[in-house]
Amino acid sequence: MSLEKFISEAISPWMKNEGSESDIVLSSRIRLARNLKNYSFPIIATTEEANLVVKQVKEHFEEQKYDKYGPFELLEMDDMKPIEKKVLVEKHLISPQLADESKKGAVLLSSDESLSIMVNEEDHLRIQCLFSGFQLNEGLVLASGIDDWFESKLHYAFDEKKGYLTSCPTNVGTGLRASVMMHLPALVITKQLNKILPAINQLGLVVRGIYGEGSEALGNLFQISNQITLGKSEEDIVEDLRGVVLQLIHQERAAREMLLQSSKLLLEDRVYRSYGILAYARTLESKEAAQRLSDVRLGIDMKILKGVSASILNELMILTQPGFLQQYAGEILSADQRDERRAALIRERLNLEIEKFN
Description:
- By secondary structure, the chain is an alpha+beta fold.
- It folds into 2 domains: 160 residues, Glutamine synthetase/guanido kinase, catalytic domain (Creatine Kinase, Chain A, domain 2), CATH 3.30.590.10; 95 residues.
- It has 13 helices and 10 strands.
- Strand 6 and strand 7 form a beta hairpin.
- Helix 3 crosses helix 12, helix 9 packs across helix 10 and helix 10 runs antiparallel to helix 11.
- The two termini are 36 Å apart.
- InterPro entries: Arg_Kinase (IPR023660), ATP-guanido_PTrfase (IPR000749), ATP-guanido_PTrfase_AS (IPR022415), ATP-guanido_PTrfase_cat (IPR022414), Gln_synth/guanido_kin_cat_dom (IPR014746).
């Protein structure tokens, strides 16, 4: 394996497996924050201490296998170009913080990219498990197993009363962040989502954009995750999130049905208009491309548009991001050049779909 393998394809192998409720829930993620005992946390660690953490991870886990996953490969941030790190961010394999700010950061990746362990981000370890569709319970089982594997070789910073100790107080306790990526175009179109968001926040959950905290909700994609990590078990946290997600799935489906019943012509026009722009545009900004792709995906899921794969949203949302466009081009591109390349890649991808279905 090499870095090239992880940045050459927009779709990670795990994304090709279709999970439940995949027309609305694109992916599920379980992330555990952990720190090593007797080491300064990354936010105040010296370079020497950070290097020692990477060394321990490398010695115990690189090229090792866990269950059916592996061998794992360790990639160090210092060895990567800015564009290469940006591609890993766009694929959700590392965080923007690890790419931009970490001291001697690294990431341990499984070959199918469903397991990602960030080293020296905000915490010494961020264990991340990714699944397609709505698979939070499966993610928790896997993350817990990986966590036990790491703890069998490393000594965690743990307090009997507080639980796992983390850099940010909001992660103390279980250190668990469970999240799902949801496509909610009908709730946005019908203006119902703004009424729902305050209720979600009151339940101890938070709604963010596609790349987490501080990011924009491009293409009607929303990341919903827990805020509370202390005072609840991992199972209870996941179950609380599951309940809210099931409600959102129900409400999104009801909103789609309402649009079909009351505004079918307008909905069809919206879908086909967006498809036409994607199929023929010569320049596309990222925000417009995301919105048009969302419309097309909605049309596919509602059986309005045929002959196009439902995975197109997942693939093109990554493929048309700035980092991936420049990695694909092999050079740094201006904003105008990226817009031109984005439009060309989308046209090329749609043409492939037409050839595949004809």
